Amino acid sequence: MGLQSGSSGKTFSWGFRNLIRKKQVDSVRLRPHGNLQLARKLSALDLVAIGVGATIGAGVYILVGTVAREHSGPALTISFLIAGIAAALSAFCYAELACRCPSAGSAYHYSYICIGEGVAWLVGWALILEYTIGGAAVARGITPNLALFFGGEDKFPALLARHAIPGLGIVVDPCAAVLVLIVTVLLCIGIKESSLAQMIVTTVNVGAMLFIIVAGGYLGFKTGWVGYELQSGYFPFGINGMFAGSSIVFFSYIGFDSVTSTAEEVWNLYGRLVFGE
Questions:
Q1: Measured between alpha carbons, how far is 127 from 105 in angstroms, rounded to an integer?
Q2: Percent helix, strand and coil across the chain, each rounded to 5?
Q3: Helix (H, G, I), strand (E, B) or coil at 1
Q4: DSSP characters for 115-160?
Q5: What pLDDT does 40 receive?
Q6: What is the DSSP letter of 68?
Q7: Which of 4, 255, 246 is nearest to 135 (CA)?
Q8: Least enclosed by CB within 10 Å: which of 143, 145, 194, 266?
Q9: Is the pTM of this model over 0.90?
């Protein structure tokens, strides 16, 4: 009985030590030069394109109107400022960790160094789940928007339209699958080529957003915002509404951490990664 108890105690101790086992900070820098490493081809401009492209997404277009109407009103600008400061503090931490521990593992690697293997394992799988669900959601959202571009779902090519499998209740979206395949091919070609594609898409995205801001503001002030019931004052929902809005619009900043996953592919890491963040 005593031997079994001692054996169980040793097993538990061994398992616990593995859970809290940490990597050394310089383990990545001390890799033998003969090992396979990622090509360092990214510049500061590439990092900015990746960071801005990952940050400016559907959240910016969807959340602005909702938060302005229901939470902040004109104080939306301050809500964005508060959320931006919070995101910047987190980005500075990511930039410092990425410079000290340049690894494609990002948050997984940082957790492995600071906390231990057990937490890093959870963080790694959480990141995989996050990117999988996020990518699937974005891919699924392209079909209705592309249908509007063609003039309606009835004019959308049948080969790319969504189809429901009878009896199973499963909807197949070929257009989403094609988008995922295109992105996968770009990533397989190389980081420089995928970064160039990201830069083009980001430029178009930023241009579209600036056009919406300028054209919408001009038409709104010209017509006097006809059809909209405007709240009075700069803080129509009070300070609480402004802070509630800042907590919601923080979602629109999510994505800046993707820059740190390219740490092993940046030349002149210490200057360019911080600039990209």
A1: 10
A2: 70, 5, 25
A3: coil
A4: T-HHHHHHHHHHHHHHHHHHHHHHHHHHHHHHHHHTTSGGGS-TTT
A5: 73
A6: I
A7: 255
A8: 145
A9: no
